[in-house]
Amino acid sequence: MNATARPRVVIIGAGFGGLAAAKALKNAPVDVTIIDRRNHHLFQPLLYQVATAGLAPNQIATPIRAIVRHQKNATVELGTVEAIDTAKREVILGERHVAYDYLIIATGARHAYFGHDDWEQYAPGLKTLEDATEQRKRILLAFERAELEPDAKEREALTTFVVIGGGPTGVETAGAIAELAKKALARDYRRIDPKSARIILLEAAPRILTSFPEELSANAQRALEGLGVEVRLGKAVTHVDATGVTLGDEHIASRTVIWAAGVQSSPAARWLNIPADRAGRAIIGGNLRAPGHDNIFVIGDCAAVNDASGKQLPGVAPVAKQQGVYAARVIKALFEGDPLTEPFAYIDYGNLATVGRKAAVADFRGFRLTGFIGWLLWCAAHIYYLIGFKNRIAVALDWTWSYLTFDRGARLITGDIEDEHTAQTAKRDAA
Question: Annotated active-site positions, please?
């Protein structure tokens, strides 16, 4: 690094961790460059609400440039990272190379299919705005086609929705689809009864929400079943195709399958040529630095980090945000000549998951809430963590309106319907 130049901090990824790091460096004498392949920060915990027509895409996404508009030492570059040259200290984006003195990798993760990548075309996941709007299209089109379908068996398959994975995303998605079908759409159709739709949640483990205490897991399951969701436990999915889902000898006919069962990390470990776990997360120590690279930090969902007890930290937003702040603190301490030696220590403020209208579970270090109070807390927490005053107000108003009326104003089908129908029919015939 040139002795007269300001240190260059490059952050790959504008998710929770990357933005937290950038903001923590706001008043530091460094030049910050944020690289992302999309121009917006996405509030992923509410993606399922876009997928189930509860919120519009712009309510959970904010342009990155708008977020750092007032941060004079920050610039934003749109691009896709292809590699990292650690010897030259450069991030490679095709023909464009971005030099760094310190690098923070916060590139997140995508859904994983445990070696069955061919399932993705039939059971897409939920990680991007594109994923969410595509899921919304599939869910709403299923009802539209059922309305016109003369065959009873095909109508049943069209109005059977299968969610694979009993973590927070799967639980919240299943509950939201049930409320959409049984409340928001209940009076909109003439030939079918949306309230008769079948929503099935599949989880291979003995219970849903395994990161929560058993009593909260059981409470969430009862709430789901109260909404009419069928919760199927202890059986792993063995096949997915255009006709539906197979569990051993049982086949569930469905035209809409949603994957919420696993994640695969970004290529951070491969870029740096360092060890990774089975999910592709870079294995790093408590100082969050990549092995052999003291100036490179890996944080968030692309990092495998253990806490003091040896338990791996979960891939959730609070972990990523705290790691981003820690990485920024370490960097500032390094060029200030007072290195920070204490390892990263995650402060767990608790877990939240909503099941539906007026129902949620919350665990705060043994202090547990359920029902309406838990749901209010869930709403407050998610509104608080949204970026942008406008988004907070818009989401709060939409949730209030939906609560009072059961309406979902974002029931929009976009894209070419006929092409989608032709593609789905071809896939089903091939299967």
Answer: 172
